[in-house]
Amino acid sequence: MADSDQFTFGGGARGDEARAPFALPGEVHPSVIVRDALSRVRPNGHVVVFANEKGGVGKSTLAFHCAVALSYAGHKVLAVDLDRRQRSLDSALEHREGTVRSLGVDVPLTRHVVLHKQTGSLLSQEIARAGSDSSVVIIDVAGHDSAIARYAISIADTLVTPVNSSSVDLELLGDFDPVTGRLRGAGQFAKLVCELREEREQRGGGTFDWVVMKNRVRTSERRQQMRVNEALRQLAPQFDFRLARGFRERVAYRELFAFGLTHLDLRHIPGLVKMQAPTGDEIMGLAADLSIPQQPVFEKWDHGCGKGRISEKSSRAFSESLHARMQPVST
Ligand SMILES: Nc1ncnc2c1ncn2[C@@H]1O[C@H](COP(=O)(O)OP(=O)(O)OP(=O)(O)O)[C@@H](O)[C@H]1O
Ligand SMILES: [Mg+2]
Question: Ligand 1 atom closest to Cα of 140?
Answer without folding.
Answer: 22
